[in-house]
């Protein structure tokens, strides 16, 4: 066990500690942005249209449903704890670098998700299935490497499940002094009922169709209320973000590198563009245009970082929390705070005692949605290795058990496995998918032609209707 722990720690220190993943992810984002001619800006209207122009599928999975699935995996407790940690260490300026990374990373997600649709297959039930392992096997004929990616995925998801479960039980236990064991049992039952539930489609997909809109509306609704209440402070907050991102004080003090790296790392690791995670979601969509599905997952990056991560940072900054030299945490109302304590105190400063139960509810929804998403993704990863139903049932049971175990107690090694799995996934995904990016550029051009034709037809139809009205 010690040998295994040592290997995992060494790999994590190399990939995460030496910023190798940061370099790879930024390189991939720049390549994808230039190659698509910055589609995330040029085609923003088409990207946003997934909310108004979703193709409903009676049995298949629609684009909007895969958006919920991908968003559920991206948006978790880390969107609160991770963002708070970033601005605690790097200050308000870190948020600017999160934004920049998200704007560039959206194109990475477009490229990898488009490839997932191009190289997907149908399983024995006639449903679409795919992701990075299938791309590697079909394009490079390296089935064994696809298997390594799939195994790394499962290791990551098992670790993530424990992290999310522990976030829920700790938040409830600390807030209301409830025994963590009982909270863990309750969460385990909820997850089990959803995973093995029945519906017209996959039970997890149907659950996330309800959970993701609710949690997004609840969280962003409260943040909008906070922004409106503090509208006079917003210009000052924005000024602080930009001045600390490029500030002379940070440069003179040698802290500018910390500011940049905190923002870049949090942005990259939160939206997961480049890891291939969203490929499992993109591949299952019942959709004919690969580029359209790429846009759906690009939208997920925007939502994760530009909306949810920003919302968390705004809550803390507008509460008056400040980064003070020589203090590890941030100062708020004369107290040095960090982590969830800082977020909870910030929320309470805005909305009073309701802030505590609100935080608990948000952590519950964020964590539950991530647990369900990785349960679904892991099932797809296992299908690459074997489509035996019994194997998938074993995996789902393992996820449910990990919810219970993680809820009772933290296991640092299992947490490290999550970083290890995600690191291996990202390295393989970028190295082998980057050379295929040109294929997605071609698909994007094809889709842009269709968009122009559609706009022309809509304009023509409006003109004809106008002429008819004028004649009458």
Largest beta-sheet characterization: 3 strands, antiparallel
Sheet with the most strands: spatial strand order? 3-4-5
Number of strands: 5
Detail the poorly predicted runs: 250-254
Report the structural category. mainly alpha
State the oligomer.
single chain
Helix content: over 70%
What share of the residues does DSSP label as strand, in percent? under 5%
The succession of helices and strands, N to C, reads HHHHHHHEEHHHHHHHHHEEEHHHHH
Which descriptor suits the 3D outline? globular
DSSP helix count?
Answer: 21
- Mean pLDDT reading: 82
C-alpha Rg, in Å? 22 Å
Cα distance, first to last residue? Answer: 83 Å
Structure write-up:
This protein is an all-alpha fold. Helices cover 78% and strands 3% of the residues. It contains 21 helices and five strands. A hairpin with a 2-residue loop joins strand 4 and strand 5. The longest helix is centred in the last third of the chain and has 35 residues. It is globular, with a radius of gyration of 22 Å. About 1% of the residues have low confidence.
What is shown here, in short?
The chain has helices spanning 2-17, 20-35, 39-42, 44-48, 63-74, 78-90, 94-118, 132-140, 143-176, 180-195, 203-229, 234-246, 248-252, 256-271, 277-283, 290-318, 339-351, 355-385, 389-408, 412-433, 437-471, and strands spanning 121-122, 128-129, 322-323, 330-332, 335-337.
């Amino acid at each position: 066990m010690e040998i295994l722990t040592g290997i995992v720690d060494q790999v994590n220190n190399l990939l995460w500690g030496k910023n190798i993943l940061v370099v790879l992810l930024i390189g991939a984002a720049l390549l994808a942005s230039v190659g698509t001619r910055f589609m995330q800006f040029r085609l923003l209207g088409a990207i946003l249209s997934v909310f108004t122009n979703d193709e409903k599928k009676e049995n298949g999975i629609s684009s909007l449903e895969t958006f919920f699935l991908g968003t559920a995996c991206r948006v978790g407790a880390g969107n609160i704890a991770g963002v708070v940690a970033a601005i605690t260490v790097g200050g308000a300026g870190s948020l600017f670098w999160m934004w920049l990374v998200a704007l560039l990373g959206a194109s990475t997600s477009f490229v990898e998700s488009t490839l997932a649709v191009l190289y997907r297959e149908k399983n024995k039930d006639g449903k679409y299935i795919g992701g990075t392992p299938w791309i590697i096997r079909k394009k490079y004929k390296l089935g064994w490497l696809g298997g390594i990616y799939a195994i790394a995925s499962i290791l990551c998801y098992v670790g993530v499940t424990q992290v999310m479960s522990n976030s829920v039980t700790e938040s409830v236990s600390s807030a209301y002094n409830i025994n963590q064991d009982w909270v863990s049992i309750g969460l385990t039952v909820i997850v089990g009922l959803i995973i093995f539930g029945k519906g017209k489609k996959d039970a997890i997909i149907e659950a996330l169709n309800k959970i993701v809109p609710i949690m997004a509306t609840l969280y962003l609704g409260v943040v909008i209320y906070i922004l409106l209440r503090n509208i006079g402070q917003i210009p000052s907050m924005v000024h602080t973000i930009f001045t600390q991102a490029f500030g002379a004080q940070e440069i003179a003090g040698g802290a500018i590198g910390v500011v940049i790296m905190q923002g870049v790392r949090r942005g990259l690791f939160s939206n997961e563009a480049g890891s291939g995670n969203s490929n499992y979601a993109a591949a299952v969509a019942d959709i004919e245009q690969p580029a359209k599905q790429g846009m759906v997952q690009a939208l997920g990056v925007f939502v994760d970082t530009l909306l949810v991560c920003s919302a968390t940072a705004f809550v803390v900054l507008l509460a008056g929390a400040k980064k003070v030299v020589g203090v590890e945490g941030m100062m708020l109302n004369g107290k040095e705070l960090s982590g969830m304590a800082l977020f909870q105190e910030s929320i309470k400063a805005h909305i009073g005692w309701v802030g505590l139960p609100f935080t608990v509810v948000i952590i519950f929804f964020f964590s539950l949605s991530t647990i369900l998403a990785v349960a679904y993704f892991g099932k797809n990863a296992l299908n690459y290795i074997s489509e035996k139903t019994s194997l998938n049932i074993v995996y789902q049971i393992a996820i449910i058990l990990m919810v219970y175990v993680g809820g009772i107690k933290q296991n640092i090694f299992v947490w490290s496995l999550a970083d290890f799995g995600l690191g291996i996934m990202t390295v393989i995904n970028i190295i082998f998918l980057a050379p295929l990016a040109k294929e997605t550029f071609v698909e994007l051009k094809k889709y842009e032609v269709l968009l122009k034709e559609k706009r022309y037809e809509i304009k023509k139809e409006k003109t004809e209707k106008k002429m008819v009205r004028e004649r009458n």
